[in-house]
Amino acid sequence: MASPSVSTTVQSGRIRVLKEGSRPLDKAQGPVIYWMFRDQRLKDNWALIHAVDQANKAKVPVAVAFNLFNQFLGAKARQLGFMLRGLKQLQHEIEHKLHVPFYLFQGEATQTIPNFVDECGASLLVTDFTPLRQIRKAKEEICKQVNDSVSVHEVDAHNVVPLWVASEKLEYSAKTIRSKINKLLPEYLIDFPVLQPPNEKWVMEKQSVNWDNLIEVVLREGAEVPEIEWCDPGEKAAMEVLKGSKNGFLTTRMKNYHRDRNNPLKPKSLSGLSPYLHFGQISAQHCVLEARSIRKSYPQEVDVFLEELVIRRELADNFCFYQPYYDSMRGAWEWARKTLMDHASDKREHLYRREQLEKGKTADPLWNASQLEMVHYGKMHGFMRMYWAKKILEWTNDPEEALAISIYLNDKYQIDGRDPNGYVGCMWSICGVHDQGWRERPVFGKIRYMNFAGCKRKFDVDGYIAYVKGIIPQSKKRKAEDPCGTKANDSYLAS
């Protein structure tokens, strides 16, 4: 938990001291380094605010470092292209508006970040928060690698209420965490301070990044899943999607959110913010503040939006942080594991291999449409993701295989894959996480059931299938015309 000795303009509850350096920060001589990972933005970034503030207190300069992993968790051109284009803009903004240098490294962060800290003689390493095990493990190793005099602070710049403050344990459901978060919102849902350039100038040589060459390499190596083009990456684009005058969610599309958010034929009713939230190109806290400012006009819509953006999203972080097996059957509740294993040997009407599922080659045209929407469009509607995952459970040999395939496909094709929301979405659909037991059925046991007939009652299934068929030729045509596409987007959060 946060050390009481940390003096900062950022609330102490938002900071965890991962390593206390042997030299007090107020007597430190070396610069502050912010290792940016999850929150890739200049504005409304508590981790960056903390880094600059600590640098000013110690009268030392500050720099931002970003480490590009090699196809992190299977990310391809679709995800890496979107991220790198956003980072290219971010480097320009940070260096020209904040006068802080931005360094890009490639390889293993457990080597590049400690090496940079050592080279700079840094006294403090600040990092943003993610619950994913790979980065948490890397942070543990970095704490061992850096000099004993170096302190390491972790700042939750992603959640409105810091994860470790909201709850100190694994929460069972939205019901159990909702009151905890709502109780703390008055304390943590505050306006961001205006971030000014640090007092001390950076004196070391700055780095020149050949972004175009780097992007070209990433697109070539990850060409199996090409970029998508229907929205721009970066902070400016994110703000436009949130509240732009032409097609902003809060300015023009919010009025349809409550009524149409679960209709796969009306994707524009969703916020379109999830890729920006996933890559940290926009602050969830900023989105909440903006949404609250129009609540008088759209009370029901705003309340539903904030349930998804705050409660459900932060519940997903809670699950991945406190449940080490967040992407396996071992992470399911005991009742769910038992009922799934009791029915693991039940006869399946269809059995499909991963390759068949990936190509959308099943007997269910609705499922095929949802899979192809994800493959070609980079985004599957949130309602369809539930149906999609549950059918994988129904059509594979056992729950373990179903979960592994759903996570593989989600992470490979979704622009917002490799995210706590994605892991929890698959775990909810297949393993009943954050859900309850239902009437027992073959294969599913007591896991919530969904079928084709139920979808037909909720929306125009034939219309959705036709809609997907209509967008696929466009995607293929764009890919043929421009193999180095420039854009990407949209939302999983039902938000």
From TrEMBL:
It catalyses: cyclobutadipyrimidine (in DNA) = 2 pyrimidine residues (in DNA). Its EC number is 4.1.99.3. It comes from the Eukaryota. Its cofactor is FAD. One of its GO terms (molecular function) is deoxyribodipyrimidine photo-lyase activity. GO terms for biological process: photoreactive repair; UV protection. Residues 30-163 form the Photolyase/cryptochrome alpha/beta domain. The keyword DNA-binding applies. The keyword DNA damage applies. Pfam families: DNA_photolyase. PANTHER family: DEOXYRIBODIPYRIMIDINE PHOTO-LYASE (PTHR10211:SF0), DEOXYRIBODIPYRIMIDINE PHOTOLYASE (PTHR10211). Belongs to the DNA photolyase class-2 family. Involved in repair of UV radiation-induced DNA damage. Catalyzes the light-dependent monomerization (300-600 nm) of cyclobutylpyrimidine dimers (CPDs), which are formed between adjacent bases on the same DNA strand upon exposure to ultraviolet radiation. Required for plant survival in the presence of UV-B light. Not involved in the repair of (6-4) photoproducts. NCBIfam families: phr2. This is Deoxyribodipyrimidine photo-lyase.
